[in-house]
Amino acid sequence: MSIERTNKTYVWIAVGFLLVFPLFYYDFDSKENIELRKGIAAVRYMSAPRQLQRSSFLVAYPNGTSEQFLSWMFSPLGVAEWPPYEGGLEFSVEEESMIRKTGIPFIPTDLALIPQEPDLEKGRQVVIRAGRGLLIAEGYENPTESPVVVKKWPFQELE
Questions:
Q1: For residues 107 and 86, is the Cβ–Cβ distance under 8 A?
Q2: Where are the domains of the chain?
Q3: What are the DSSP calls for the chain, one per residue?
């Protein structure tokens, strides 16, 4: 009788696990503002330590801080290393597909990346600011209103 009870317990545990397991892969992020989130993802990609070690950032700022990253990102050296824009004429559809498979994010076509303050002349934009050891990205659908997406992440200083 105890073996039968033990087997039932294992079955219920397995069933419970199978019911809960898919929740680990469910994306709870809002599906709104996808273009803004893609722009923020591109900035996060550029600021990742692995990417910075392969960029001209370390040459320009050997002990770089978040403020220096922001200066570099919008300098001619940094802009040259931005991820590509979606649907740009720079790559064919097949090439874009292959690039996406490598994990490189694309910047949405109608999105502007702006340093420090919103640009009232541009529409949809991601404004990047630097704080003490932080990067802050604010996504604006309309620059005259409040940001609709705000993301903060630590900027890891490289050695």
A1: yes
A2: 33-154
A3: -HHHHHHHHHHHHHHHHHHHGGGGG---S-SS-HHHHHHHHHHHHHHSHHHHHTSTHHHH-TT--HHHHHHHHTSHHHHTTSPPBTT-TTS-HHHHHHHHHTT---B-TT-EEEESS--TTSSSEEEEEEETTEEEEEEESSTTS--SEEEEEEPPPP-
Q: Please tell me which residue, 65 or 17, carries the higher pLDDT value.
A: 65
Rounded Cα gap, residues 60 and 5, in angstroms: 68
CA distance 127 to 111: 11
How high is the pLDDT of residue 97?
79
The pTM for the full model equals 0.73
Contact 91, 103 (CB under 8 A): no
